[in-house]
Specification:
Elements: H1 10-15, H2 28-35, H3 38-46, E1 54-61, H4 62-67, H5 71-81, E2 86-88, E3 93-95, H6 100-103, H7 106-117, E4 125-130, H8 132-143, E5 150-155, H9 158-162, E6 169-174, E7 177-184, E8 189-190, H10 202-207, H11 209-219, H12 221-229, H13 231-235, H14 239-259, H15 276-285, H16 292-309, H17 315-327, H18 352-361, E9 367-372, E10 375-379, H19 384-401
Parallel strand pairs: 1-2, 1-3, 1-4, 4-5, 5-8
Antiparallel strand pairs: 6-7, 9-10
Helix pairs in contact: 7-8, 11-12, 11-14, 11-16, 15-16, 15-18, 16-17, 16-19
Bound molecules: nicotinamide-adenine-dinucleotide and zinc ion.
């Protein structure tokens, strides 16, 4: 398995390797030893034209560091041990975790300044260890310096391991808009270590499951059956069930990126973004108090309900979807869905999310909906009255199911 930095399909090699789900220890030494086969490890750290030792700048999510206080020393010792291959340019930088990493642009400046100060070149490595937000932010900083330096992702949440970590996008929020500044830049490697998952809060353990449900709903009914069958075990934090969920979800995302023919989204559709037009708007309306995965769960409940009311999705399928989300502990409704519905020019009205979604993708409005569990369909118009009825139905569902 050789890695090239320029092609999305090379990432498939890492994510489809069985090693992905057999990670053993949280310390970086065993993380790299376990996850990356020997020849590949050399390619990873010392790839490119330049002779080793290659420079590496490491950035760590503060939330991860707080739960793994030995991590910074482990990174330093690892690099010292492998000094013929790599040179850690400074002690790992610790940055705020969560969405504030993407909301405060001084974080980007900090990383860019370090790249400048320590002479990180296009053959050096920047490595980010953290949740999806920190990885998005550091990836953006890495992609915009020297027009792109090598970037290694070590995702530490369910969502970042099964979805964002293996994608090709990097971004930060600006002008009140989610992911407004960003790049398409594949990482040179993605390393998933299961031990990081043991320290996640209940919310962050659950949150990423919604992205797995999303891809199952669009593409794989058997995967949906699996999540439904294992719902209780997932709630009980069964690691084996979670590892298969992450593996299958990552694989489906990678298959899509590698084979859809549009990895850099030149078209106006984003087939995997089921439930995301509302999710991105809800994140913004709740001032990011909702996690991305939680907002996606509500967005999917909304678009499933709309699909059902529009006569696209059979009622039993709709009931199974809402039943699964609720069984996992997701809310399917939040009051921000219902505010300012009478004034669709008010930016606090959820419907403005449709136009923001269209604007972000460019071209014609294209929204993924469902025909049945396991099969998505794209539409180019949304009926706002039917959407209002969907919101009312969800509010009722939520009040009767809690
Ligand atoms: N680039 C993409 O393709 C893509 C796709 C989906 C989502 N995203 C982005 O990912 C972000 C959400 O990422 P997320 O769900 O990973 O949440 P997050 O990055 O917001 O992290 C949530 C919290 O978990 C903490 N944390 C991280 N790892 C931990 C660990 N192992 N133990 C304990 N705490 C830990 C963080 O410090 C933070 O407080 C959003 O900004 C979303 O837009 C990007
Ligand atoms: Zn998402």
């Amino acid at each position: 398995m050789r890695l090239k930095s320029s092609c999305a399909s090379c990432l498939l090699a890492i994510a489809t390797s069985p090693l992905l789900v057999e990670a053993g220890s949280v310390c970086l030494v065993s993380l790299v030893e376990l996850l990356v086969p020997k020849g590949c490890r050399v390619t990873l750290i010392s790839g490119g034209d330049m002779q080793p030792p290659k420079k590496i700048l490491c950035v760590v999510d503060r939330g991860v560091w707080q739960h793994h206080p030995d991590l910074l020393d482990a990174i330093t010792s690892y690099c010292q041990h492998h000094r013929s291959l790599m040179s850690l340019v400074c002690p790992p930088l610790v940055v705020p975790g969560g969405e504030c990493a993407k909301n405060d642009l001084t974080n980007v400046a900090t990383i860019q300044e370090a790249i400048h100060q320590y002479g990180i070149c296009r053959h050096s490595n920047v490595m980010a260890i953290g949740g999806g937000a920190v990885i998005d932010m550091v990836g953006y900083a890495a992609a915009t310096t020297h027009r792109g330096v090598r970037f290694i992702r070590v995702p530490t949440t369910v969502l970042s391991q099964n979805d964002s970590g293996i994608g090709v996008k990097n971004s930060v929020n600006a002008f009140g808009k989610k992911n407004f500044l960003g790049t398409f830049a594949p990482p040179v490697a993605v390393l998933n270590d299961a031990d990081f998952l043991t320290t996640l809060s209940t919310r962050d353990w659950r949150s990423g499951i919604s992205e797995a449900i999303k891809v199952a709903l669009l593409k794989d009914v058997e995967f949906f059956d699996f999540i439904e069958e294992k719902a209780d075990r997932l709630v009980d934090r069964d690691m084996q069930a979670m590892l298969w969920l992450i593996y299958r979800c990552a694989q489906l995302h990678l298959d899509h990126i590698a084979t859809s023919g549009d990895p850099f989204e030149f078209g106006s559709s984003r087939p995997l973004d089921f439930g995301h037009w509302a999710a991105h708007k809800l994140e913004q309306l709740t001032h990011y108090t909702l996690r991305h995965g939680e907002a996606v769960a509500i967005g999917m409940a909304l678009d499933s309900t709309y699909s059902y009311l529009a006569g696209l999705l059979p009622k039993p399928d709709w009931q199974r979807i809402l039943g699964l989300l609720s069984a996992l502990g997701f809310a399917v409704y939040t009051c921000e869905l219902s505010l300012y519905l009478h004034d669709q020019r008010d930016t606090r009205c959820i419907f403005t999310g449709l136009n923001e979604f269209r604007e972000h993708l460019g071209g014609q409005l294209t929204i993924p909906l469902l025909e049945r569990i396991g099969r998505g369909i794209e539409v180019h118009e949304m009926d706002e009255q039917m959407m209002s009825r969907s919101i009312a139905l969800l509010a009722e569902y939520q009040s009767t199911s809690t």
